Amino acid sequence: MDTEIYYFSGTGNSLFVARELQKRIPDSKLVPIVNLLDKPRIKAEGKAIGIVFPCYALTLPVAVKRFVKKLDVQSADYIFTAVTRLGTVFRGLKTLDRLLAQKKKKLDAHFVVNMCNNEGPRSEIAYEVPTKARIQQVESAVIAYLDNISPIIRKREAFRGKDDSYTISCSPNPVKNLLIEKLVVFGMNLSEYVGGVNYFYHDEKCNGCGICEKVCLSGKIRVAGRQAVWQKNTFCYMCYACLNFCPQQSVQVGSIPGVASHTAENGRYPHPYATVKDIASQKSGS
Known about the structure:
This protein has 286 residues and is an alpha/beta fold. The protein folds into two domains: 3-154, Flavodoxin domain (Rossmann fold, 3-Layer(aba) Sandwich), CATH 3.40.50; 196-280, 2-Layer Sandwich (Alpha-Beta Plaits), CATH 3.30.70.20. Helix content is 32%, strand content 17%. The strands form four sheets. Strands 2-1-4-6-7 form a five-stranded parallel beta sheet, covered by helices on one side. Strands 3-5 form a two-stranded parallel ribbon. Helix 1 crosses helix 5 (132-154). The longest helix has 23 residues, at 132-154.
């Protein structure tokens, strides 16, 4: 296999991008990251390696960082990433560069894809589920962008342009914005070393259907006595799949200091790019 595209996707955006890239890159295959994380070492075989994942708290998801640390990339002469996001700036490039430099490799190309908001139920008071028209508008823009970048990948060209497509700043004050960014990234990095987060719960609408357990990428959720239970000793990948795929909208996120949660009053992202089976299959590698 000439190109391996590794992907991590909690709610479907990154899966959509990974699939569309595969269509455009000959002799390529998709490989789910989650299925590999229990291995002590992950050996890549492609001459080109792509890593597709969402931006979490302005940086890498913990699952992706752990994956890159274990990844043997000696077979590759070209490495690229595609990061999906709502519109916030991505500050994980230095981390990727550092991890690859430890393997005597470098990140040749880096792309950022703006998509619909799948974290809005938590972070925005006035969150609105994207309409079908809005989803189609975003999808058209994504398709056009992937059409533009796929020749760069096929030709193995370098692309490390400045990220000027982000649309959201933490604060209009540049100094305050920088401080908030550093704090957000620090909090994300810290979570890996304090055992992750335990702010998910279900309300009285939970009927024990088990969908949250199926889509939970870290295996943190277990349904017992027809109720979902988040295992405190299991690390949460913060993928929000349980929140967004719950058919009862029963899964909620508790507020934390400095970040209020609004999941109880808001809707959920409708996931046009993935099904429960698509997300769950990442754990089995199928």
